[in-house]
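2024-03-11 09:14:02 DEBUG pipeline.ingest accepted 1 chain
2024-03-11 09:14:02 DEBUG pipeline.ingest length=289
2024-03-11 09:14:03 DEBUG pipeline.predict start
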Amino acid sequence: MRLYVTVASMAIPSRAVVENIPVISARDPDVSVHFPPGFEDRYEVFSYRNAVTILRHTCGAEFQEIIQALVEFRIRTDNITTSGGNKSKIAIGMETLLKPRGWNETRITGDLHITRRTTSKVGRTLKTGKNKGTTKYESKLVEEAYRIPGFVDGHKIDFVKGRVAFDMEWNSKDQTFDRDLYAIRAFYETNIVTAGVLLTRSSDLARLFAEIQKRTDIPDFKQKYGASTTWIEKLLSRLDAGRGGGCPILVIGIKSAVVSDFDAWKATHPARRDSTFTLDDEPMDPEDE
């Protein structure tokens, strides 16, 4: 047997042509009007698929509780410089604000039940009447049941109340965003929530981290908080690529102003060395490439 493969040539558009193609984006235009004065001094906000409008008008009570918790939320510099074990003091600080308001970690699981209905034509020979001896065809319905166990398999979100999901990622590997988006989509697609909120670090914190790095002797500080961890750009690029699916998602980035004692901390921690803290991706190893 011979296998023939035909390869068709395809013209690749020039850069100028590609750059002129309109970009489709699910990111909403300026949403500042939905937040209280001064909020964006401490947080940057991005809304996808009308998330902020939906949250404000259909889940207003929950939205206001999130905003109020973020207004009250503070991070101390020691929370950044001290290792936190399984759960950092920063995450615990958010729990302290939300749990008394009724926001709780929530997990969903589910099997998919499927019913297969088959209609067939069954012949029956008539034994009496003027059509005796002829075959009459009648419809017969057969139902078969199937199940896919674990179709929704243990998706977990930090805080859920009413129809709003809220997840916080302070410092994990950036692949954690894929897990978070998958979980929020599962909640949305199974009609548990109407919208999701994701809180993470703004790139505005890079300057603050550079100051910490030159004033402390924390081993591997840059690697701990480096480009491959949960910075807001890593999340936005995933949402711009459509990984949020159809779920409306509000993204909030923590800025330096949330770190309440940083000026006082610097006064007691003099600079020891020069420091640069960049969020550029590190060069890929040629073997990995």
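2024-03-11 09:14:41 DEBUG pipeline.report The radius of gyration is 28 Å.
2024-03-11 09:14:41 DEBUG pipeline.predict end
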